[in-house]
Amino acid sequence: MALSYIAIIAGMLVLLNVYPTYVNQNFIFRSKQDTLLDRVSLITSTLSGVDALNVENVKRVVEILDVEDSGRIIVVDENLRAVYDNSVSENVTGKLILLQEIRYAVEGNDVFSANYSGNELSFKSAAPVMLSGNAIGAVYIYETDEEQAALLADIQSNLRNISLIVMIVVVLLSIGLSMMFGRRIAKLLRGIRKVREGDYGHRVDIPGDDELSDLGNELNELSIRFEQVESMRQRFVSDASHELKTPLASVKILADSIMQTDNMPPEMVKEFVGDIGDEINRLTRLTEKLLKITRLDADIQSEVSAVDLKGIVIRAEHMLEPLAKESSVTIQTELEEGCFIEANRDDCYQIVFNLMENAVKYNKIGGKVSVYLFKKEGQVTLIVNDTGIGIPEEDVGRVFDRFYRVDKARSREAGGSGLGLAIVENAVTRFGGKIEISSKLGEGTRISLTFAAADPGKEDSDA
Ligand code: ATP
Ligand code: MG
């Protein structure tokens, strides 16, 4: 990056050096062109009035016009032979002059050329001397301008010096900045590599208050997040293995007992095999829930549509009837029509079933479960109320944690894994809903969910 900055600035400085000199030079050339051509044509037009192009005539004209001092003046005849030269030291009178400008002029053209090189500014101008439509010779003036040349040279050297200073400053600054940035970027890269290699505890310290230090802070936040996710993953795997181990151990004990007891009465064998069946059912439920929660974690996009919660509650109520009957719990519902939410149908069933199942499972003999569903101000609310055992105050905040159970023995007895509410929370948040829970030990629990109401037009065709 520093190199490209240097290259761009160097390019701009070169332009800055060349362009003004070019413009100035052009300006001087153009203004000189007019005056010099005027002067040449003044001489040629005066000369076209003389009877012959010879040294005396030309000298007279030059004197009359008073142009003696305006540079070197050479006059040639039509054969390119010099008839007059005002130079004393290098006088060329009588010689053939083959200068390009003079040849062009004798052919009938006005000529002007200017040149600036090596601190010298020179101008050449020539024009034909015409007599009744024919060129009988040409006048050539050569002039130099030291003053303007010195001015141009001065501008050039000033620009060169300024550019040099600017370039030195730019190079030094670029080197300094690139060293400073380079060191911080290298530090950041080292940090990223460490985190990538799994060292989530690594933190980078990028000093300063700019984008790079922001990047460093973001990287630190990211590693903290990785650290949390990793520890959650480890805890989840160890909890899950533990949960799987318990029913497996029971199955093993039951199977060993059958194998090792000689002449076990058939009723006892039946009872043990029945228990093995129960444990296997529990394992099946547990693995189903584990699958469900890992699928929710993986954020696999499930199909969403407008789902009517009323139908879902009725289905869950129907499924829970036998369980409710077992402990004489009555389920009461008050369900409004047209409570649609944008969600996945199966996930909605899981949410409602898990909440209602808990309300039945953690209830008292002869207790009550009330389910309310209504729509208000663009929001759909589902409330599951029970007159059950309630949750101790200190546990209310934790019941949504994975594998968390207030009373492990009671939950396990009821076939619970502690994953039900975790699944509920995960799915509800995914569909943009909110959960509220309030509970009083010994009196009951109330869980309320709110979602944005959906347009029923989008309802599943198979609903
Ligand atoms: P699973 O739902 O996976 O079969 P579970 O019911 O034990 O098992 P969750 O539904 O996540 O797991 O509930 C976690 C714990 O919260 C339960 O073990 C229970 O102690 C407590 N709990 C949940 N709902 C209620 C309720 N309505 N009344 C009293 N306690 C409850
Ligand atoms: Mg449950």
Question: How would you portray this structure in words?
Answer:
The chain has 11 helices and 12 strands. By secondary structure, the chain is of the alpha+beta class. The chain folds into 3 domains: 2-152, Beta-Lactamase (2-Layer Sandwich); 211-295, Signal transduction histidine kinase, dimerisation/phosphotransfer (DHp) domain (Helix Hairpins, Orthogonal Bundle); 303-458, Histidine kinase-like ATPase, C-terminal domain (Heat Shock Protein 90). The strands form 3 sheets. Strands 2-1-5-4-3 form a 5-stranded antiparallel beta sheet, with helices on both faces. A 5-stranded mixed beta sheet has the order 7-9-10-12-11, with helices on one face. A two-stranded antiparallel sheet has the order 6-8. The mean pLDDT is 91. Bound molecules: adenosine-5'-triphosphate (ATP) and magnesium ion (MG). Magnesium ion (MG) binds at residues 354, 357-358, 416, 420.
Task: Write a compact overview of the structure shown.
It contains eleven helices and twelve strands.
Which SSEs are present, and which pair or pack?
Elements: H1 2-47, H2 55-65, E1 72-77, E2 82-85, H3 100-106, E3 111-117, E4 120-131, E5 134-144, H4 146-196, H5 211-260, H6 266-297, E6 305-308, H7 309-326, E7 330-335, E8 340-343, H8 345-361, E9 368-376, E10 379-386, H9 393-396, H10 408-413, H11 420-430, E11 434-440, E12 444-452
Parallel strand pairs: 7-9
Antiparallel strand pairs: 1-2, 1-5, 3-4, 4-5, 6-8, 9-10, 10-12, 11-12
Helix pairs in contact: 1-2, 1-4, 4-5, 5-6, 6-11, 7-8, 8-11
The structure holds adenosine-5'-triphosphate (ATP) and magnesium ion.
Residues 354, 357-358, 416, 420 line the site of magnesium ion.
